Amino acid sequence: MQRELTNKEKFLQGLSSAVHRFRFVLLGILGAITVFVITWFIVAAVQENRLESSTVLAELAQDKFDAWFAEEDEELSKGLAEELFADIDRIIDLYPKLYAAQRAEFIRGRYFFEIEQWEAAAESFERMANTFPKSYLAPPALVNAAVAYEETDDFQRAKGMYNRVLSEYPERSSEIPHILFSLGRLSESADTKENALSFYNRIVDEFPTSGWTNLARDRIIYLNID
């Protein structure tokens, strides 16, 4: 008389039968998983290599900018500037979404800023902040754009840049006291005394240890006497 199988034996028998029936499906799934894992490692390696390569190029561009800035010979300076712009364009063309592109655009803005081409500087800094709004370079880029717009007497656009930092990066920028003081100064120029006092008082209240606080106090005293 044949022995009745136990529940465990029935389960193992059923499992063996199922594996046998679906062995090709299981092999296909296993193969797909293997391909996925291999592909993932390849993509990760390629991305890491691109990041390293782009970062090296960004550092070289920074070095070239520093060399241009320190160069006193006019002809050598011109040659370095041409090389710098070729490097910047190459970085942005090859790595438009990586950190190197942020640095490259910021360096372009600094170049124009140093030679006092204010419109071009403002455009570069603003483009950098618009393209990479989450970058740590975005707040200083907007501040630099604001200063450049001030140099062109475009005070409305300057205020717009300053206000963007206040609204979009209230806790990320160490430049907040400077920005508030600049907005106060621009408000004074526009004869809006109350707005100016509001900005200066914010510096005193919110940033008591800032280097801008004493300047803000001086302006508050002056405006209240005037």
Description:
The protein has helices at residues 7-21, 23-70, 74-94, 99-114, 118-131, 138-151, 155-168, 176-189, 193-206, 213-225. 81% of the residues lie in helices and 0% in strands. The chain starts with 6 loop residues before the first helix and ends with a helix. It is an all-alpha fold and 226 residues long. The radius of gyration is 30 Å and the shape is flat. The chain has a domain at 50-115. Helix 2 runs parallel beside helix 4 (99-114), helix 3 (74-94) runs antiparallel to helix 4 and helix 7 (155-168) packs antiparallel against helix 8.
From the spread of the alpha carbons, the general shape counts as flat
Q: How many E strands?
A: 0
User: Percent helix among the residues?
Assistant: over 70%
DSSP strand content: under 5%
Largest sheet: none
> What is the H-and-E element order?
HHHHHHHHHH
Radius of gyration: 30 Å
How far the N terminus sits from the C terminus, by CA atoms, comes to 116 Å
Average predicted confidence as pLDDT: 85
The unreliable regions are 40-46
Give the secondary structure arrangement, pairings included.
Elements: H1 7-21, H2 23-70, H3 74-94, H4 99-114, H5 118-131, H6 138-151, H7 155-168, H8 176-189, H9 193-206, H10 213-225
Helix pairs in contact: 2-3, 2-4, 3-4, 4-5, 5-6, 6-7, 7-8, 8-9, 9-10
